[in-house]
Amino acid sequence: QVQLVESGGGLVQAGGSLRLSCAARGRLFSINDMAWYRQAPGKQRELVAGISRGGSADYADSVKGRFTISRDNTKNTVYLQMNSLKPEDTGVYCCNARIRRLGSEEAVEYWGQGTQVTVSS
Based on CB atoms within 10 Å of each CB, which residue in 31, 44, 105, 116 is the most buried? Predict the structure, then answer.
């Protein structure tokens, strides 16, 4: 069994910062790409940022220059540092990862349970 466990969401004023963490737990062999998605009320889920195992990162245009994705492969953890937060950043943030479990030949996509981020104006 493999799980993605997120933490770090909360309520913050506009201009503030939050740091999200997502740890992969269980009997896993390796983790490929990891990413953060978000879904605002009434909107479709969107990709916020992604990072390869080697550390190459991509960002949605709306968060470039404000958010930073990083990962610690020794801890099987991905982070999202969010600065200069805006009310439009409000939503449920979910961690996503392609993980190869021990004893398995292929990587499978996993999702975290989501953590709420609310930015007040």
Answer: 31
